[in-house]
Queue: 4 jobs
Job 1
Amino acid sequence: MLTRHVVPLIASLSLLLVAGLLAGCARGLPPVDHGPVLAVSSVADSFTTDQRRMHLDPESRLSAFGLLDTGRDAFEVRTALIETASQRIDAQYYIWNDDASGRYLAGRLVAAADRGVQVRLLLDDINVAGKESLFAMMEAHPAISIRIFNPSPSRKGVGRWLSFITDFDRINRRMHNKTFVVDGNVGITGGRNIGDEYFDEHQELNFRDRDVMVLGPLAGAMTDNFEAYWQSPWSYPLGQLYELPESERAGDRLSGLSRATTESLPFAAPVPQGRDLAESLLAGWFADMVKAEAELVFDPPPEDLEAPADKPRNTAKALFDLIESARKEILIESAYLILADEQLNGLDNLGNHGLKVAAITNSLATNDLVTNHSGYARWRREMLEQGLELYELRPDAPACKRWVANEQACNNGVVSLHSKSVVFDRETLFIGSFNVNLRSIYLNGETVLVIRSPQLARAVAEDIERAMAPENSWRVSLNEQGSLVWQSRDGEVYQEPETGFWRRAASRMLSWLSIEKYL
């Protein structure tokens, strides 16, 4: 059980009740004027440029795609891209942890900046607290710029948490987008943040996640995504929020951070160090990528952070369009799954045409957030009554050893679902940072790829079906008496399996609250 992630029930209820009383009492920071916007284009002469010319017709609209299915692949590819960067790296993340993998990638970004690469790092404020020293050190480098999206005016202590309550509407508009673009030619988007649990390096909890690497024109669309947030008046230079270290002291610490990435490393797998090894690794990836028609869809930052969030955003509209055009089957893989009346009514209309809709999400035993599970549990019965097939991941799923390239972590810990993919008729793949829940539909900024490739769609569909197998998941259904039943190879149970009383009680009590839009 993930006891370290349990949200204390009393604290959660108190925050939610006080939020309603205090919302609107506080205001955020004034918007920032970033000055003239400079045009950004792909780099004309680099390793990735050569690879793009080698594998793609310059007259074609196609891009090439490669699935990063394990955390180890995702970590190695990001590391290799940093090593081969020539001019520019733009990274946009919801979470960047100050742990072994987070510091390693930060150190390699510093090393890239030392050789003249311009590094821009854009982070959502919600998870910056406690990691300020790492980012302030990086910002001190003349070739590294860091901005924070939608920051709280209070930067620490009780004031920071109070601002989350008193400025409830604004603070809930988060930048959940995740993009990593090198030289405008290659990009990565998907579900992963930066941290050990996303890269198969955590000894207790690892996420089953999925990214896509893109070579070609759509890497430019990812840059457009990045620029929209980088130039937003709600993205603040780090130095406007935190005191930066003196240049002399920062220089020594930056050198130490970069130097540490060339010494003995704590990772379970080797990482490609040096340009030659990095180019060799990436060349193999690029040679195996699948060419396809695709589009990148992203939600731009809101013009008014306090405006009502009552309409589906761009990524949600793209998903709804795909749902309407589906003919036979929709397979959903979503870490957090919440569909309410409006969305379920749409699926009910499609069900009249024999459309199969099956979804896998986290069980209470694997969900890293009890609050998020409570929102799903609030609507679980309605989803089943509308004909959805529901599957919940087991914490001891044997497929962990296929998804997580760290067998020891699978033996000793828990696997949790963090991937976000939807497959339509095994022909089209919808993949990115979008959870199929109300927060992604109405509140968050998200980034997704819509890839029209039967080859990639089938690969993900088969992986989703593998996750739904009885040894890896419980199938949730309603028995003849209308009670919830969890079925697996071990038989049937009639309450949330593999969880203790207090965790079940917390989820049940939170599910009574109509807060699912904010989970």
Job 2
Amino acid sequence: MAELMVIIGLMLATVLLVGVGERVRLPYPVLVTLLGIAVALVPGLPVLVVPPELILPLFLPPLLYATAQRTSWSMFKVRWRSILLLALVLVLITIAAVAFTAWLLVPGITLAAAVALGALAAPPDPVAAEAVAGPLRMPRRLVAVLQSEGLFNDAVALVVYQLAVAAAVTGSYSPWTGLLRFAYAAPAAVALGLALGWLARWTLARIAEPTARSGLTLVIPFAAYLIAEELHASGVLAVVTVALYIGHTVEESDVHGRLSGGAFWEVVELLVTGVAFGLIGLELREVLAANEGRLWEIAGRAALVCVVVIVVRTLWLGAGAWLIGRSGDPERAPRNWREGLVLSWCGMRGLATLALALAIPPEFPARSELLLIAFAVIVVTMVLPGLTLPALVKLLGVQAESDAEQAADEALAKRAHKAGLRRLKDLDAVRDLPEDMIEKIQAKQKGLLAALYADREPENHEEEQAQRIRTVQLFREIHTEVLAAARREILAARTEPGADPQAVDRVLRRLDLRSAQLH
């Protein structure tokens, strides 16, 4: 019972920290990292023993799936150069640099154990990077690179990690075995992900209830990961492929599913992250107690590893900015040294590093010291950039693309507007619609066009367009107040004697959907 109370407490603390972060304008991953430190320092909490072999299957699939839903195949096609440089080459270089550093510094560590440390410290966390960089109005090219980097570098790091752990435990290792493993694991995972994605879409198309659809999407990433690992393929790539396939084949009419599914996965992502940081805090409490006389010595080694992680990423992205800048691709990222420096500062280590650290077997050489070093890397790369990135972005002026990005939004809005009018014209030709109905729908379409890019400042438009935007904004404000009054009345009806709660919930849901359509 005590262990369950700790888990509930971690979830509650995570939710509260999100609210605190909104008030003090700090990204929640930074605060959740501090939560892990607090848990490690609080005495008296029970130790939660989670078998190491269950850590990765429990934590990685839902977070990978949630992140992959926010990207697409087409983005990978456009940004393959950046992904190759960051998700493959940089990860391998970081693994080698950290492994060499640990092998020199940590007494008694084997080369395989050092490589395992390098593998768990190498992959940045896309969730943390997006949470920190997203609100800063950075160029979307850079945020998209961080997302895609985080999806693929986990796959590379996990293959190296698993090989290194096996070598450290068994005492045998072959580079050719590693290459053959990766050459099989990646294509097999993609093929499995496509097959499971097709099956998932076929099943989802036959489930009408949004709640059941969201439940199925929660099962899918776990199934993809476990089946892939059972087949010795990459569970990470299998989950990413499934998410991309489902997102690519989404049904345009599934409005309720997108609303409920998006909210559902935001909650899952938040709670899983909080529990994971709390678990490593609980484990670190035991590790700190066992190494009380050596903490300063270990802290010095951990600091050097952190410096290596940051310096390697900074130097590589400086070179990458030069290489990518010569490609001439208008969507390239980074384009210059300033963008490269910002991307290098966004290399936050998060849940992947946490999960891999917790998954280290108990018999692993120097396990306690590796856990402390891994957590130090997370704290330094998460807290320091999380607090200083806004100032760095402002200092370097990496915010100059808002006009171009707004233009891209407007181009898509106009495409949607024209498509709607074309469909209206086709329907009029077939059904001979009443003239007043056509005029009303055309007026609605004009209002929709303005609403789709109503965030743009009025001075950047002609006066007619500015007036239309003000009208739409006033309409939304008044409509919001009207719907709020309707919701208050329905909620009051719930407390009346004889009220049917199911009827109340049905009407309230319809009102909520109307309100969601205004934002």
Job 3
Amino acid sequence: MTADTDVDDVDDVTMRLRFYGAGDFATYWQIQKAADLIQRFNPSAPPDDVNGILEIHNARLFVEAGFTPKDLPEAEHTSLTEAARPIRRVVAQWFHALKDEDLDDKLSDVDWQYHEHLLDLLAALGVFGRCSATPMLAVLDRARIHPGDLLTSKRLVENYDTQVRDLLLANPDRAELVIRHHLEDQVRNETFLPASLTPADQRELIQKYIDSDNPNGNYLKLVANAPIDDKTGVDKRLIVKAKRRYDAQVKEFFATNTGITTGCSVSVSDTQIEPMMVSLDDTVIEYTFSEAWLEDTLDYASVLNNFQFLFEFAPEDGLLTLPAVDSERRGLESVFGLNGTHDYLTGHVFTAKDLATLSQTVMYRRFLEARDIDLEEVLRWYFEEHLPSELGITGFAFTPSSSTANYLERCRNLFAEMESIATQYNLFIEDGEIDHDVATAGADLVRYRDISSAIEGKYAYATDHPEIQSILHTLFSDQSHLTYVDENLSGDNAVDLLVRNEVPYEALHAFQQPMIDKLIEIGLAKNTGQRIVLTNFPLFSVLRSLSHHEAVAYHHLDHAARAHVDAMIDAGWLVRRSSLLTEAEAAYFNYNLNSVDFSNGPKLRNKYQHGVQPKGEGEAQHQDTYYRALRLMIALTIKINDELVLTSTDHGISTTDETPADRDN
């Protein structure tokens, strides 16, 4: 065989025409090829092999979807459409002629890129209903069509029910298909399981997979974080078994692989003037705080202020920075790894800020403790002394942990007090007073999403309207098509691109210019003739908050920003709702505390309130939990104070004492 023949063979097999859909650039590159193939097509002498049949089927899909050469005259366009019409009939005749005895000859050589189209046509043209399971499944296996792809065909699974069940149970590795079907979030294609596959079958298959030689850690983690469900066969024992195997794999991996050191360090400097400085040492973020600043802000109001502003728990508009938000998840984080259907979606940014705020809480409590200040006593002061004296609000009660309590006892007390404060706040908003007998009578698991607000239309949220979603994606996503113009003009996102570079309109690619046109249309950008600049800070601040916090605190906005929010509500881009916490903030609390919304969280409140906290790691584990509980309680206090200040006067811990920014100015 000559080298020329090899090239031709590659072209015939791997370079065949395929319609990828309107959203894929590969579709646009093949428009002329599709037109050429249809023009050469002869209905009287159609291809007889499966790949030829599937290629002309794909060519027809181009024309039917309107993908034809732009410079094609109208007469030739009509001729092309007419030439494509017989293809549907020819393809159907080829598939209708298939019989059990010739399946192997006809289908086994199907090209890999046509697997999806082959399954679609076998289903749509009734072949699965006519042909027997044994020869059909055998030839699809010889064609190297993965069992996971078979499960995307509802008609195949329905027609070959018991045979597909046997196929799944024959290999423990196929538990991955069952796990993905039930537990993975955002799957590319919907899958179907045979009706004969019982929950007991599924549990046994998953257990064999966990016990197998080399189970994939991603799937183990999905099971370990899964909710208990009779329909999936996942029970508490299977969850524990998966978690132990996953933890063992991680431990084994790091025993032989050093990995990359990441994390953060927190320290106090006796020479630093700035309240806080942040630096990066290789892959470790270093936070250094001024001892002079901390010593000068030991009054209780300033202590809480430091959490809000210095440690940046909520430095902007009373919106917490602690939750995970989609805009923080980089593009690759959405691709690699598997996310469960009930997972709280995190990423590297969330992990970094979670570690930072926890480390800062640990550092600050120890700093204050060395000066005889107990953070729980600061919280008691806020609710029982500050609110009555500054805002005239009475009735709140907060009981700090005993000074002699160990960390286990502190955890149980603090979780109980957190729920008590949330319940008291609900009663205060609903009744205008706090009746502790009513609070006791109605004591139940706190629904953080449902904690009331006294402020009507407190938060604005983006709707699913395609225009606002497109604008937010264009501006803030690292997957935006407006991040790279050339090697000299690029940025992490569109905002970064336009702010750090002088980008002339004419330098943009043709597909990028409509995005800029839209930003100009809504008044966010301007073409100066030399570059594209972002203007209209009030509008930008609204869009930035929607991206960074997934909400806008309406009553913190100035009149110009409110006008933009109102206009976007009228356009159907935004909607306003009221609650103490934003939706992202409530999700963060639920992720940490319970299993109301998510199955992959630490469930801290549930474990300690039900007496099933971890036993093996001792006091160190309880100490870690206590700091996490303290962080949540402080965050809740910041949110309560923000709302009470908004509804009362301009007094409160966030306004009566200076912030680091105030001091610097």
Job 4
Amino acid sequence: MPVYETLDRRSFDEGLEACQTLRPKTSDTVRIALIGGFLPRRCGIATFTADIHASLAVAAPEIAVDVYAMAPAAVPTIFDPVVRGVITEGDAGSFVEAARQIEASCAEIVWLQHEFGLFGGLAGDMILELVDRVSAPLIVTLHTVLAEPDADQRRVMERLAARAAKLVVMSERSHDLLRSVYHADDDQIAMIAHGVPDRPFGRASQFKPQFSFAGKQVALTFGLLSPGKGIEAVIEALPAIIEDHPDFLYCIAGATHPNLLAHEGEAYRDRLQALAVSLGVDAHVRWINAFMETDDLLDLLEAADIYVTPYTGAQQSTSGTLSYAMALGKAVISTPYVHAVELLADDHGVLVPFNDSEAIANEIRYLLGDSDRLLTLQRRAYDRGRDMIWPVFAERTCALIAESRVVPKAAPIPERIGIEGFLRICDDTGILQHSVHMIPDRAHGYCVDDNARALMLMHRLDDDALGKCGQLTPVFAAFVQHAWNPDRGEFRNFMGFARNWLEDVGSEDSCGRTLWALGATGRDARDPGLRQWAHELFERTAASALEFQSPRAIAFAMLGADFVLAARPAHDLANRILRSGADRLIALYQAAARPDWRWFEPVLAYDNGRVSEAMLRAGVRLERADVIACGVDTLRWINDVQISPHGHYRPVGSDSFGRAYELPRPFDQQPLEIWAAIDAASAAYDVTGDDIWLAHARRAYEWFTGYNDRGVIVGDPLTGTSKDGINPRGLNLNEGAESVLAYQHATYAIRDFVRKVG
């Protein structure tokens, strides 16, 4: 009995069943992860997030909302029961754990409420620890968009813009800044006004007694108390107002901002109160030093006649209390910060200069002295608020969620694949490395990596495709031959468009990949002369593989050697490469592996499946059970970490490279991994005979057809071209040689695999 038939076949049957059933269920339920502050935390973001949760529960019960609440590090908080996860400000581990929870929940949308001071780190960059690890489309509501960000603020915003499917803003000014300052795409930005409650108009007299305001004309400012609110300017305006309206009362409601309170206690409030005393107006100022629950706040707003927002700076992107005041029909007097300028345009309120007490006094006196003008502004504000009430907000939000949601769908393996996309990037020198969209990019020239893979492709094309491009076979072979640098005993890799070599020696990986192509050509080329050429060049160049240190370079050379041995079983150099490579990879595995990390290195990189495939091929040819077992074990592990919770294939992307003992991040995914996964699964099937490996290979190939994290079609069977991969926002629209070749090879490989299994 062959040695490999004694292998432990644990969980293969279970794995096959799971693989066959892991498909997205058709369901009307959409699960979203909502990240922000949450009650009972006392801040505007917490209230806003809680209001989102409540409005969606009423308007869209088919949306399941999991709340992940931001918690301040220094203040223990017991959140409402609806909170599924808690993220501690400044604690990187809690952001990583929340990302793990979100992934495990199969959330289809991640919706983040962003404010720089909410998360910890430089400009709140701790949130990137989470968003870089979640695969679902990301919607970010930006509560602050700065016109002049510092370096860290810009870095965070640009990362969020690159990661987000949608950026939600509440003002046109923020929309413009996202485009001009942060270079966000216009179709990425959505404008949804701050949600507001829906209450009847004109009930101030009904609510005044509740706050002992009966018989008073009342102006209100509400919010967490801090110097930037500009309350000094209103207090300084009071003597002039009271002179004309002695029954006037200015109500200042809201607790001191927690950060200010921690830094200096109530010193700021004490200074404001002392100012009122010094001006002789303290009897006309009502202080409510408390964080008010929403219903109490709304009652207080209803009791007021005028709402004042005297902020000292123009950069305030949004003000929830301003939106609330308008929705409840209050005449608004405000300084011209961004949100106020837009909401109060067209005579929906009154704007006054920053820090101008006289202007504030004049406008309040004017409104209180003209009841018709006061009522007109109140009605205008109320009417504008109808477009912001929570049911309207929920309707627009649901449309945004539906637009952003991804439903991966697999398509059948194509019966044939075109060759036109491949031909587009070839010329009489070889295959060009890169494209800008579909146009070949001559600026980056050629590389031996791609020309070696192109040479391999020539041996597996069907007759129709070969008839269209078979004349390129000697072109690719000539490129490989010319890449050899006999003076250095290595292959060169990069060549400029002018046919000038850009280096004397390429990387180990490019040299190993070239030996792999020579081995494949020596076995599979249709022309006997080409097979002989490949064997001779392999013989002359392959000794360098015995010194390779890169696991992938070792694996590529082993695969090439296995091809050589298939044609010439007694080939001594190929035998040495195979044996030495197997021993070195086992040693690397033993040094790096842990119970939860069954891999050859402490990091992941590209072409991961090739290393396991090389061990499987070598183990069979050398009849070494230990090598086969290592190949099977590592391939199972790398397959497991490349399957999303939804069940589709998620290849290790470049965002994951070089991160020691860290499981893969979702992006940027590239076609090369698909080809490697299929070939490795085919090798595992040859060893075990288990159909689970065909299921794995099919799932990997379906990544090209739309069964992926963004539900996008990556490969085009009509032209045989492929996009360069999947990033957080969808497709990388370029069509480089590596991607096109990977798609071509993967298509032929999966067909061969299916035929082999029968």
